[in-house]
Every structure is written in structure tokens, then in C-alpha cells.
């Protein structure tokens, strides 16, 4: 349930192993809200194994490095090797891509598979299960009620999942921070920031990430800063003057870049522990519905893609569905909790005050590009069981 990145990848992975899949999506259009996202090797290899490599190579970019700078000083703090270094070390690329481009690639592939059926404009309003399967109640925008039956249900309806409470009732926790997202034409950016690289600017309580997407024509911008309250409306318009005021002390090239967008979309950041369990009986959670990941490690989409591969593998073993889903949940539990913890830790380090940030900067500078990459070998080197 849910035809976002995780749901579509799961449909493709399950279809590739011979399962018939029905994708149920509340929306009727697929204009993916958001801008860019990062596909590290742990995710890109899964998508390539599904036959999407050629389409992704045409649409994605592959930055040569992450350049880490002080937000106010503009001084380079450190560097993370990407590009060829990632391919050589982990056997798969580190791609950046417009979210809508990835959604289009996945959706086109799903529509081309005879075993995948897509139902749009339906919300799942009820779910029941027995020993034989699950029954879903669907409601259209006009109020029409339908039912659907299946061997299992995969819930991939995002961080504010309406169905997660079947397995785990812990509530979302507001962080009182917001991610502001925008895109700008690359040629409009300051010359120093037009390069084929990811920029990461760190400051007390705030940070900014930018990288080229859409074939290098556009720069994706994400600025994370404090907010007084929170909103459940994802992608609400933001007032550019508020953002510029929050980054008034930014180094001149960054300030100029942040001053370019005429509109921003704002996401209030929320957190919640990974569901325990991620699956029970004939119902499995996947992606943000199972384990929201804060945007300080660039792993939200990647983890959903990993989930899809592990779920398909677990269901390929010939076990009864409940046993296969229990295996999926067990296989994912430690990894998703570890990645959530690292993302939270990165958030504290990115936004640290003077004393902690001085130590952070010294360590980053001393490590150098290759060792900065190697710190996350455990993350980027992940492969599904049974893969080459």
C-alpha cells in the first residue's frame, strides 16, 4: 500500500520473483513532492539488480565528492570521496537524482510488468487478516467502497502511516526543526558552487546541503533550521524571508545561493523508533512507515529500497507467509535501528556549538577524503543475502 519509492521498489522486487502485486495509492497523480535525493551504493545496487541501471544512469548525477564547509566562515572543513572512489570501493555508484525522475523510472517499470496492478485514488480504510490472507477495505475520493483480498499486505504509506499502529503504537516526536527544500537553475548559482559536487555547510543549529540534479541543469537545495512548532502538512510553502533571516550570517557564496529561490517547501522533522516488530502475521511495514530516518545521513530512500530487497528475498524461501515476514522483520531490525541512531548522532554533530564543532572539524580534516568514506563502509557496502 503506497506507490512511493519504497512501495514501487517492493512491487518490482516481488514481481521479479514471480509474485502478483497490487499497488494501492491514495493519490491519483504521481507528481512527487520534493526535490532531490541521494542513492548511496547500498541502494543503487538494488535498483541496478532490478534492471533499472541504464535508466538511472541517464537521469542521475554522480558527484565527485562531498565538500564540507563552515556555514559562516566558508572554510573547508573536510571532504568525502564519492564518484569513482565509491564505485571502486563498493562496486556500485553514489547517485543523486530528482525525486520525480526516480519515481517516473520506477512507475514506468511497474506499469511494464504484467504481474503488477496499480489502483490509484483509493485510501485503505480497513484491514483484517485470518489464517488464509488479508482483506482490505478501500475508499475512493467519491466515497465508493471496495474490498480487496491478498496473501499479505505491505504497508508503505510514509512517516505518518495510518496503519502502523497495528504493529507499534509509539507516537511521532516533533524535533522543532524543519527541512526547507528548493531548486534553482545551475547557471544562476554563484560560480564557486556550480561544480559537480555535493556541498555540506555546517553551523550551530543549522546546516545546508546542495547538489546538481536533472542532468546537471538544476541545483537541489535543502536547508535545515529550527522552527517553533510543527506541521503535519508536508511540503507547505515557506516564506523565503524567514529562511534568509535564519542564515543571515552565511558565507557570501552560500548566502547568494540561498537568496535565489522564490519559493520553498517546508517539512517539519519528526522522529520515531523503528517499529517492533516491523511485521506480524501477514502484515509488514516498509520504509518510513516502519522506521523514519532523520535527514542527516541521506538514507531515507535507501533504507526503503533495502527493505524491498530483503522482503522479496524472505518471501522467496517457500516458507509460510507469517514465517517469511517474521524473517524479514528479524533481518532488518538491527540495521535500521543502527542507521536511525547514526542519523540522530550526525544531526547533533552537524548542528553543534563552538566546542564540539571545533573537535568535529579537527577530526574531519585529519581523516581526509578516503577515510571519511571508509567510516561508512558498513553502510554503503551492504548487500542483500544471496546477491553477488
From TrEMBL:
The keyword Plastid does not apply. The keyword Oxidoreductase applies. Pfam families: FAD_binding_3 (PF01494). Its cofactor is FAD. Keywords: FAD, Flavoprotein, Monooxygenase, Oxidoreductase. Residues 2-339 form the FAD-binding domain. Gene3D superfamilies: FAD/NAD(P)-binding domain. InterPro entries: FAD-bd, FAD-dep_Monooxygenase_BioMet, FAD/NAD-bd_sf. PANTHER family: GERANYLGERANYL DIPHOSPHATE REDUCTASE (PTHR13789:SF318), MONOOXYGENASE (PTHR13789). This is 3-hydroxybenzoate 6-hydroxylase. The lineage of its organism: Bacteria, Pseudomonadati, Pseudomonadota, Alphaproteobacteria, Hyphomicrobiales.
